[in-house]
Design a protein that fits this description.
By secondary structure, this protein is of the alpha+beta class. 61% of the residues lie in helices and 20% in strands. The strands form 2 sheets. The chain has a 4-stranded antiparallel sheet. It has a two-stranded antiparallel sheet with strand order 2-3. A hairpin with a 2-residue loop joins strand 5 and strand 6. The radius of gyration is 32 Å and the shape is rod-shaped.
Length: 244
């Protein structure tokens, strides 16, 4: 009777150990799946929410800048006309008219100075917005990634290399005439210059203490580019994502 009891006890202990091993393997497998999914969700959020938000705001700044082009053209043409009229007034020795035209030229140049200041302020604000938000996005990516890894680090060993291009520039330039308070336009390769690019190399495996139960080693690559296109007055965002 005692022998049968010991036999049943040993049988139960063996099954309990096997059950624990099975539960540990299942939990470890789920941990790998959940961690990988959280990583995908994090970088998809960056691709489909954060980068488009930044690009959309840059386009708003550019629209605001380009909306000043008609005023720029008016002032430019007015200055050109006034200078021609002053030359004619001087040639005919009409000094009162020449003096008035000189005063009008000064007023027009002053208006150009003020417009030039507004244009440069828009450009400066847009550049600072881009720099600040891209830096903040890099910081948030690092923080979120570290937090996720901290949650699953008991089960998962991971290596993440992500690159978020941080030297993006506004794809604008003054027109060929240039000068004070010029017209602004997009550069010919604006889509490349102002594209926001994210690349991730994601490698993970279960920790060594669990590899006898479940040995999983996965590698993924993810890349995303958010740019825009313009046709006339229509501006459109373009999101290109590689398979994760």
């Amino acid at each position: 009777m005692k022998l049968a009891y010991n036999h049943n006890k040993g049988f139960f202990s063996l099954h309990f150990v096997l059950f624990l091993l099975l539960v540990t393997a299942v939990v470890n497998g789920y941990a790998l799946v959940f961690y990988a999914q959280q990583q995908k969700d994090l970088f998809r959020k960056t691709c489909f929410n954060d980068l488009p938000r930044i690009q959309t705001q840059l386009v708003r700044f550019e629209k605001q800048l380009f909306s000043l082009n008609p005023l720029s053209s008016i002032l430019r043409q007015r200055l050109h006309t006034l200078k021609i009229q002053r030359v004619a007034a001087i040639a005919s020795k009409n000094w009162p008219l020449a003096a008035k035209l000189t005063f009008d030229i000064q007023k027009t140049v002053h208006s150009q100075v003020r417009l030039d200041h507004v244009q440069k302020k828009i450009i400066s604000t847009a550049t600072q917005f881009l720099k600040t938000n891209m830096s903040l996005l890099v910081k948030n990516l690092s923080t979120s990634n570290n937090f996720q890894y901290l949650i699953w680090s008991y089960f998962v060993s991971a290596k993440n290399k992500y690159y978020l291009e941080n030297n993006v520039q506004l794809a604008i330039q003054s027109d060929s005439i240039g000068g004070l308070a010029p017209n602004y336009e997009l550069k010919s390769d604006y889509r490349r210059i102002q594209s926001l690019n994210l690349n991730l190399q994601h490698e993970y495996l279960n920790n060594k203490k669990f590899q006898t139960l479940l040995n999983t080693h996965q590698k993924h690559h993810f890349s995303c580019t958010v740019s825009f296109s313009r046709k006339g007055d229509e501006w459109h965002l373009a999101i290109n994502q590689d398979k994760f």
